[in-house]
Structures are given as structure tokens and as C-alpha cells.
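#struct-help
A.M.: can someone run this one for me? Single chain, 248 residues.
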Amino acid sequence: MVLAAAAALAVPASPAMAAPTFKVPFPCNQSWTGQTRSDHSPANAVDFNRTDDLGDPVVASAPGTVDVVTNLGNTSYGKYVRINHGSGYTTYYAHLNGFNVSVGQTVKYGTVIGYLGTTGNSTGPHLHYEQRLNGSDIKVKFNGVQALYWGSKTYKSDNGCSGGAADGTVNTAGSPLTVRSGPGTGYSSVGTVADGASIDIFCQTTGTTVTGTYGTSNIWDRIGTGRFVSDAYVYTGYDGFIPGVPRC
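D.P.: on it. C-alpha cells below:
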């Protein structure tokens, strides 16, 4: 387990209300070791690791608005993101290798906000994660259950399992988009999605090559259990696979 220290950074105070339901800050079904220790700075932060984790996607642990995306260089948090969840609650994601969000962006469960790294005051790749209330660090909870203090524990993420890992918008220039039972035109139709509809993308895979609104692609998006649509008709903001979205 890699150890790290981080300087305390305050946020403006606001009235305390019910806490969001925070989830493990990694994609659905991933398992990560989280470490807490009394000499950490701040004390209630959690350091996350797993094998070969450099560059792995880090996701928002609860819905909110990104209010800090910055790089402190070789000191403190290095590259870090802060998300404001309202009611005085914020989360910090530090020592990132890179960013995938910008200030003012609204995020949901499973939104990829950056990539695990070793920037700032870090001795090796890991994610330094905090939950704060009115600027003060608090003991971290996942799904309402307090993390282990003090020591190491493996946490399995259910983040984005029901809400999708990314968003997309169907664009067929008018016609409904056929939903298939698998990633290809040879699979049976199990329904349609209207042109202009917003969809949750749970994972992506390859299948039949299709030419659509956004060119020719063999990428298929899973939008539910046994429900796939061609990415050639879905606007995601990316040309190809969406960074951080799991492969089916």
C-alpha cells in the first residue's frame, strides 16, 4: 500500500443537511483496497490501490458539480478534482494522472472524472480520496456504511451499476433506433429508442460494423440487460470508445 500526505484545503461553509449516498470512486464491480491510518493528512482520507492501477479511471462517488480542477505541481494533492454535492458536502480526488472533467460540469454516479496517478506529494500510484462537510474532513462512508478505521479493507464498487457509466444521445435524424439483444444486427430486435433520447451506457463492446450518423463503427453500447444499440447513432462526445467506460 502506497502512503501519501495531502495539505488541508478549505471550502466555504454552508448549512449541513442529509449526506449524499456516496459510493466507491471506481467503476461498477471493481475491487480496490482502501487504507486508512491515523497519521494521514487529513486523518479521515482513504488511499486506494490495486495491482497495475496507474491510469485506471476514477469516477464520481456521488452526483454533483465539479468546482475544482487544478494542478498543484509536485506538492500536496498534485492534480486533483473536487466535486460539490450540495448541503456542504464535497469530495476530493487527488494525485491524478489526468483529468476528464472541467469546472462547472455536472456529474452523476459513475462519471469518469480523471485517471489514477502519482502526482504531487505521492510516492507511488494511488488515489487519495476524501469526503468533507463544510470544509472539514469526515469519516468516509460508502452506501451509508463507514469505512474501516484504521487499517486496510477491500471494497467492491457498485458505482454506476444501475445508472450507467456514461451518457449518450440518440441521433438518427428522425427514425427510432433499433435495440438488439446483442452487439450486432444479426441479434433479435428487443425494442426501439426514440431519436433524441438520452441513454445510459453501462459498457461498450465490438460487434457488427454499422454506418450511421457518426460515421462507420463496430462499437456497440449496452444500455440495459440484453439491450444494445450501435454507437454509430449515439452522440457521446468521443470518436471511438469512451474513456473509462468498461468493456462488456
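A.M.: thanks! The first strand starts at residue 31 and ends at 36.
D.P.: also worth noting: Confidence is low (pLDDT under 50) at residues 1-16.
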